[in-house]
Amino acid sequence: MGAISHHARHIAAAFLTGRQIVIGLAVIVIAIICLVAPVVGGSAFDSFSARAEKAGKPAFLIGLGTVAIGLLSGVAILTGIGLAVIGLVVAGWLLINY
After folding, report:
1. pLDDT tens digit sequence for 55-78
2. How far apart are the first and last CA of the chain?
């Protein structure tokens, strides 16, 4: 009786190694993430787009004003910050509309 149970443990251990179990669990987790991400992303994007339409125009004007101040005063960092704000507003507008 002891020899049969001893062989059965070896067969079970040879069937699935620890590495295979970890890889299987990782595949399951990745599959769940791939299925859940679009649902969560869609609701987050809807929330973002509703607020972005309201904040887009003032942010663009703030960026434009910062660029103007940076160019008139000769401070390159202000110009860069203003251009970055304008770039983010334009990227958000493209993301929402296309």
Report:
1. 888 999 999 999 999 999 999 999
2. 70
Model pLDDT for residues 32-60, shown as the tens digit of each residue: 998 888 888 777 777 777 777 788 889 99
How big is the chain, counted in residues?
98
C-alpha 85/C-alpha 87 separation (Å) is 5
Q: Is the dihedral of CA 60, 66, 68, 70 positive or negative?
A: negative
* Angle at 37 (CA atoms; ends 36, 38), nearest 5 degrees: 95
Over its C-alpha atoms, the chain yields an Rg (Å, rounded) of 28
The tokens for 80 are: 């860069």
